[in-house]
Amino acid sequence: MLRCLCCFAFAGAMLVNAQTATFIKKTADVKDGTFNLQGPALADMNEDGIPDIISVTATSETAPQLLSVLVSNGAGSFNAQPNQYSIPSNPGYAAQPMVADLNKDGHMDVVVLANNTLYIYLGNGDGTLRSPSTFKPNTTGDLNSAALADFNNDGIPDLIVAVNGVPTLYPGKGDGTFGAAIVASASIQAQYLYVGDFDGDGKLDILAIEEGCGESTCGDALHYLWGDGTGHFPSVTNDPNNNYINLSVFRIVDLNKDGRSDVMGDYEDKTSHAFHSFVFYGQADRTTKEQVLPYLGVPGDFNGDGNLDLALPGYRISYRQADGSYSAPVTFGSGDATGLPLVGDFDKNGKPDILYSVDTATQYYPNSTSYLEIFLNSSSGSSCALPSSVGITVCDPQNGSSVTSPVRLRATAKLSTPVYRFEVWSNGSKIYTGRDTSEIDAQVPLQVGTYSLTFVARSSSGERVEQTISVTVEPTAANCQAPTENGIVICEPAENATVSSPVQVLALAKTGNTYRFELWDVNTGTKLLTVRNSGYMSGSVSLGVGQHWLRFIARRLDGYQVTADRYINVQ
Predict the structure, then answer these.
(1) Of 14, 212, 312, 380, which sits most exposed with the smallest number of CB within 10 A?
(2) 106-136, pLDDT tens digit by residue?
(3) What is the pLDDT of residue 550?
(4) What is the Cα gyration radius of the chain?
(5) Partners of 141 in the beta sheet?
(6) How many other C-beta atoms lie within 10 A of the C-beta of residue 362?
(7) Are 294 and 329 in contact (CB under 8 A)?
(8) Any residues with CB less than 8 A from the CB of 76 and at least 6 apart, and which?
């Protein structure tokens, strides 16, 4: 069943309330092969700190496909001639390349799934690859989908494969090969597998999609396999909404920067047959919250306001607003491209750039040519550039500063080999983990107090750098202080206040060791907010017009709890 990534509905216009981004356009000719920018991977293959393009191209409509590496030239552009390698399989479909350091030598390697065989190309660190080895599980069936990720936290990428639809894990050995199979869930028949930390517990999970029949009688099924950090998945939950047809996942990304992976894509409604672009926001309680997106685009913070905007076809950006909605598209350039772009920092200035591919060919390789339209971000908004030598640059928060929660974390790291994990620790507890990235830009909730924040960057080969800063988190409402004895102080909203929705909430709790801090609407029995391992609650909730009875509950693991009520009127 084909899945369409370009069929999606558009919503009405919304206002842009933040600065728009500006760009400088460059072009680069690319010979001998076209690049479909909706499918490739970005990775630093020559270790110059700039992402390169890894893609699959074709010699003809019936010939075997080629693996191509288009290397950046260090000046905001790319080499004209890609490095190309044969995929030794029969003519047919090759999936999107997967990139990771499989043999712990500090160089990025590439894996391609083609015709039920995995081809492993070890990297040399200079943009070139070695001849491929093969990995084929001991099965006569189909390999539907595959992904690379470190599920057992040993610093070595593992391979998850849908073998005859069954999600099966092959632990990485650290030498470019994989160990014996571990069945993740025998009851699932998945066509597509995706990886993310959907509940934000620091352990990688799997999203498995099982296709329905494509008709109104049977929708696609979503299964979440929750990782335990050892390479096993003891808990599986199913999305109760079976109303999706032709559901297609476009990207796994932390779109709202809450430390949990979100799912972007589109689907056809089983009942109305209308197409929707969506984001399923990951939740700490292992549920999801759906937001219908007016546009499907490639995420990036183009104007430096801390929110992930969407780069769209047609040289447009839809800017994410403070309330999570998206603006009407704003045109930033012009050209001849028609598809979705790539997003990456192609000139090392700490700001995301946008790249479109224009295919001018009428035949396949070697007569095909294309060119790239590269829009380098020249916005005046703040950026966090890479350090000039091995180390970490912390841009936010500033050392010794006072901030309010949620706290924006912005930092970049440079090692002699690619960064495998980029973490932030607070007073001995890990509060954020970024994988396979040299940049952090995230919002994390912290209760009122003074913190020692340590930023740690690691490579898969064991290299490590760290930097520690001190920061004080202050309340956001005047005279809002934590209780001196066990109890709850509600700073916002005020008692019997008349307010508008969304309602701003600020409360502080003391229990001795708060495990969960919750806000409930007593009249409806609905939980509105949950904060874990903190007695500080700050956020906003949507409430209907009328009177509301709000109850704040702070709980400890031993069952002890304190409560406080607030009555308000929403106009």
Answers:
(1) 380
(2) 899 999 998 889 999 999 999 999 999 999 8
(3) 96
(4) 24
(5) none
(6) 7
(7) no
(8) 26, 346, 347, 353, 374, 376
Q: What is the DSSP letter of 240?
A: S
pLDDT digits (tens, 9 = 90+) for 478-489: 557 778 889 999
Q: Indicate the burial class of 428 (C-beta count within 10 angstroms; 0-12, 13-18, 19 or more).
A: exposed
Single-letter residue type at 171: P
What gap in Å lies between CA 326 and CA 323, rounded to an integer?
Answer: 9
Gap between the Cα atoms of 98 and 102, Å rounded: 11
- 152-171: string of b/e by CB count within 10 Å (b at 16+)? beebbbbbbbbbebbbbbbb
**Helices and strands: H and E segment counts in the chain:** 0, 44
Expressed in percent and rounded to 5, the helix, strand and coil fractions of the chain are 0, 45, 55
CA torsion sign for 73, 76, 77, 82 is positive
Measured in whole angstroms, the distance separating CA 481 from the mean position of its chain's CA atoms is 35
The helix (H) or strand (E) run that includes residue 204 is none
Sign (positive or negative) of CA dihedral 359, 302, 247, 226: positive
**Residue 71 Cα distances to 51, 343, 394, angstroms:** 8, 15, 28
The DSSP letter of residue 319 is P
Using CA atoms, how far apart are residues 469 and 452, in angstroms rounded to an integer?
6
* Cα(416)–Cα(49) distance, integer angstroms: 10
Q: Are 146 and 170 in contact (CB under 8 A)?
A: no
Looking at the predicted structure, is the pLDDT value of residue 59 above 70? Answer: no
Q: Can you give the pLDDT at residue 4?
A: 35
Q: Which residues contact 429 (CB under 8 A, 6 or more apart)?
A: none
| 212: pLDDT strictly greater than 80 | no
Tell me whether strands 143-149 and 133-135 are parallel, antiparallel or unpaired: unpaired
Per-residue CA distances from 439 to 50, 376, 419 (Å): 12, 18, 9
First-to-last alpha carbon distance for the chain, in angstroms, is 48
